[in-house]
Amino acid sequence: MTRQKRPAIGTLIYFLGALALGFYFTFAAIQGDYGVLKRSGIAAEGRALEVELEQLRAEVARMENLTMRLSDKYLDLDLLDEQARDVLGLIRTDEMVIR
């Protein structure tokens, strides 16, 4: 009878260890702190923040325009009248308020 040779236990442990390390590094490359999923999430968050930044810049430009229109150098009487009515609740003597 011929005797079958079994692989040495050391070789089996070596290949299982290499396979485990391969799985670990693959998992880390996909879902780790610096993985593909984290990178795509950061990119999406960056795009959302850029959109928010553009909205804030537009709001700042609008406020700067209103501030300039109410400054001493350039006074917009219609805007001043609108603000006085809105903020202070002022009306002219010839007007009637209907609520």
Brief description of this entry?
The chain is built from three helices and no strands.
Pick out its properties:
70% helix, 3 helices, 99 residues, mainly alpha
**Annotation, overall tally of beta strands:** 0
What's the tally of helices?
3
Order of SSEs: HHH
Approximately what portion of the residues adopt beta-strand conformation?
Answer: under 5%
Shape: rod-shaped
Query: What's the N-to-C terminus distance?
Result: 109 Å
Largest sheet geometry: none
Stretches where pLDDT is under 50 for at least 5 consecutive residues are: none
Kindly state the percentage of residues in helix. 55-70%
Mean pLDDT across the residues is 88
What structural class do the secondary elements suggest?
Answer: mainly alpha
Radius of gyration: 36 Å
Outline the structure in words.
The protein has helices at residues 9-31, 36-69, 77-88. It is mainly alpha-helical. It is rod-shaped, with a radius of gyration of 36 Å. The relative contact order is 0.04. The model has no long low-confidence stretch (mean pLDDT 88).
Produce the secondary structure layout.
Elements: H1 9-31, H2 36-69, H3 77-88
